[in-house]
Amino acid sequence: MIDRLDAMRVFVTALEEGSLARAGQTLGRSPAAISRAIVFLEKHVGAPLLHRTTRRLQLTEAGERYAGVCRRVLAELDEADLAAAGERAEPRGVLTVTAPVMFGTRILRPVVGEFLQHHPAVQVRLLLLNRITNFVDEGIDIGLRIAALQDSALLALKIGEVRRVLCASPAYLARRPAPQALSDLSRHDCIAVEPASPEENWSFPPAPGRRVARTVRIRPRLMVNADEAAVSAALDGEGIVRMFSYKIQREVQEGRLIILLPEDEPPPVPVHLIASEQRLALPKVRAFMDFAGARLRASFKSMDNRRLATAATA
């Protein structure tokens, strides 16, 4: 007889691996055994959980709801096992971490790699997504957020700050004089990241002694739906781009992009690692928060120092 908890693990593993075949390889089971577990759950729930018309797994509406339930149940069981093992239990198991795409690629991924070297019993599932995630429904242990956080049940560890900067390549600035004031932007070629429109407003803090924020109407020459494409276009001299500083820090340090109008930058935006109090009790979560927190703080401090050095020599 199929055990329901075991079938739940099969279901969640299949979702994480993206296919029934890979779930079988991960769990060391035959394709028939994986299929039987899914069918067992569907009969128990009384509704299909997966669409079977595509090569990749696609959840039905009932499957989406049930996946969240399965992840919560399995997480609570894992927590109970670790609590029984005591506070000094070795970090182990699958750790799910989410972050914005470029931050995860450029900054967080190397930290994850170093963490894995220190903790061989841990596997990391790194979800790079430019959207807000639901920690419970998506089975997330730790998230990285670039924003001023609202009150919530999540515990936050501040690791640094980022700035929203204007920049352009030396090639573009050789062709077009650098803007001396925000009002000059309306006469420059600009690169916008979607959601964007043929005409859009870029907002900036109030001028000294004023209370009203300043708005500049630009007409982007280029609109793209990915930050990497916008940075690439700026490097090719196609215009001025507005980005969080970490997305162009490497290019600025190498002299391939130049920060413009730094005195008009908005206030820095805080960056946090966040986790629920319940998940923070897990050794794998606590270990990553401590490990990554220290290294990311050092990384942000280094980025800020490089930025100041670049500004001083520009």
List the helices and strands and how they pair.
Layout: H1 4-17, H2 20-27, H3 31-45, E1 50-51, E2 58-59, H4 61-85, E3 93-99, H5 101-118, E4 122-128, E5 142-146, E6 154-162, E7 164-168, H6 170-175, E8 190-193, E9 200-204, E10 214-218, E11 222-224, H7 227-235, E12 240-244, H8 249-253, E13 258-260, E14 269-276, H9 277-280, H10 283-313
Parallel strand pairs: 3-4, 3-5, 8-11, 8-12
Antiparallel strand pairs: 1-2, 5-14, 6-14, 7-12, 7-13, 9-10
Helix pairs in contact: 1-2, 1-3, 1-4, 2-3, 5-10
Task: Produce a short descriptive summary.
This protein is an alpha/beta fold and 314 residues long.
Secondary-structure class: alpha/beta
Helix count? 10
**DSSP, total strands:** 14
Helix content: 40-55%
Overall pLDDT score: 87
Strand content: 15-25%
The radius of gyration over CA amounts to 24 Å
Q: Describe the global form.
A: elongated
- Given as residue ranges, the uncertain stretches (5+ residues, pLDDT < 50) are 305-314
N-to-C terminal Cα separation, in Å? 72 Å
Strand order of the largest sheet: 4-3-5-14-6
Description:
The chain contains ten helices and 14 strands. The longest helix is centred in the last third of the chain and has 31 residues. By secondary structure, it is an alpha/beta fold. The strands form four sheets. Strands 4-3-5-14-6 form a five-stranded mixed β-sheet.
Describe the structure using short key phrases:
disordered C terminus; five-stranded mixed β-sheet; elongated; 314 residues; 14 strands
